[in-house]
Amino acid sequence: MSSFAGFRFEQDTxxxxxxxxxxxxxxxxxxxxxxxxxDPPPAYYHRCxxxxxxxxxxxxxxxxxxxxxxxxxxxYRRLIRQVVARNPRRGSAAPEERVVVPxxxxxxxFSRAREPLLKAECGGAWQSYFLRSHWRMVFPVWGRHxxxxxxxxxxxxxxxxxxIVHLFRFPRITINHGLVLFAVAESEREIQFEAxxxxxxxxxxxxxxxxxxxEFRFPPACYWGGxxxxxxxxxxxxxx
Length: 240
What we know:
alpha+beta
């Protein structure tokens, strides 16, 4: 697995998790899934797309300066708002145009220390629903589309991009989620993408494209039983 973009999981991701409204339990023998409400109820939820978008905005638009003195809460609030107000479809800003965040070496350290501020300022749950890609999921997603998507994502990573993808199943919506891709490895059989999953801040996850089947597959997780998913790139302009 090779990373081309310079995105470092241990430095450029949020330290806190996107919380789940539901708890999922999977029977490995039958594949059956049971669902129950999280107890206690989550406080920070329905924001997986907000977190994915914000992580890339900080990567593209912020410059962390650990050698500078830490600022106060209101100054950090102002800086966070500056970062997330920038166009999420915009590429990396020049060093002199970036928002300088003093006192920390990256988003992970910043979010560990300033979790409440980031949760309050990065965006509301409604921003995860009002995405251009949500209208697209109601239409069929053919193998040719997924082949083109996989090729485009691999090419973008090779060119230094940090694409964000929307994973879903429709019409039975068993997954509707966002990831940030930051590394890729290709073989004759598959293309394997390494990703930041807002639900799982402890380690990267893998999204695999099967060339023969022309489909993406996402492994089991705490919120998903594993299997084939439809994938679209989002926050890239146009209708997405």
